Amino acid sequence: MSAVDKPFSLTTRQADVLRLVQITDCHLYADDDGQLLGLTTADSFNAVIEDIPQHPLADALLATGDLSQDESAGSYQRLKAGVKQLGLPSFWLPGNHDDPALMAKELVGGNLHPHKRLLSAHWQIILLNSHVERRVYGRLDDGELLMLERALNEFPNHHALVVLHHHPVPVECVWLDTIGLKNPEPMFALLSKHRQKSVVLWGHVHQFFDGEKDGVRLLSTPSTCVQFKPHSPDFQADTEAPGYRYLDLHADGRVDTQLKRIEHIAFTVDYSVKGY
């Protein structure tokens, strides 16, 4: 087993609570002025990074894909510089807009770690790669499912937070539901056998979701930049502000979570654009 495959041990500030902060879908560019739907993504990302320390300190940060829009080394260096300011142990996974090989090269060192399994006293966090080369939808290959199975078997008494980029259930947004995770069934089958609590967390949809499937809590988180309008049959940007999520994972399996929005800064979005 390589060092990356071994669980990274997380130190918590509270004995019975693991606090995480999730950022997702930053869509950064190497260029300072790079825009997604008219919004300068470096500005919204920086606003999120500046807002995080205004709240109780987290124990770790999760960056859950589509961190780049132009698949450039400069975009990942921008993310690395921002995350460095927080000083939190930080972990990442790729989205459909990312270059996984380049991420593995650039997103290391400092407080950024390549580990895909994290462990606290009561919780195990498993980061899965749902990236499919040159496709917008996601899929978990056999290697990712095997890692999940082994992780759950190794720590059966820990609650499990499974993290990926693509949504594994419909979010009632027609166009988005065609580009989600194509094979969620094996993941849910493994979680159904797990004796402790399970939660699945993702990005990709640029909107809030909080649901449940067979006892598994299901959560999605808004983007640090542009949001997508919920319940829309076709692509449409939303008016909601950039955001991120806090999660408090309790020893008994409860999850308390809050969305944070950057409401105090005006961000311009071009609502006439019909794709990204």
Automatic annotation (TrEMBL):
The keyword Transmembrane helix does not apply. Keywords: Hydrolase, Iron, Metal-binding. GO terms for molecular function: cyclic-nucleotide phosphodiesterase activity; metal ion binding. InterPro entries: Calcineurin-like_PHP (IPR004843), CNP_phosphodiesterase-III (IPR050884), GpdQ/CpdA-like (IPR026575), Metallo-depent_PP-like (IPR029052). Residues 18-207 form the Calcineurin-like phosphoesterase domain. It comes from the Bacteria. Pfam families: Metallophos (PF00149). PANTHER family: CYCLIC NUCLEOTIDE PHOSPHODIESTERASE CBUA0032-RELATED, PHOSPHOHYDROLASE. Belongs to the cyclic nucleotide phosphodiesterase class-III family. This is Icc protein. The lineage of its organism: Bacteria, Pseudomonadati, Pseudomonadota, Gammaproteobacteria, Pseudomonadales.
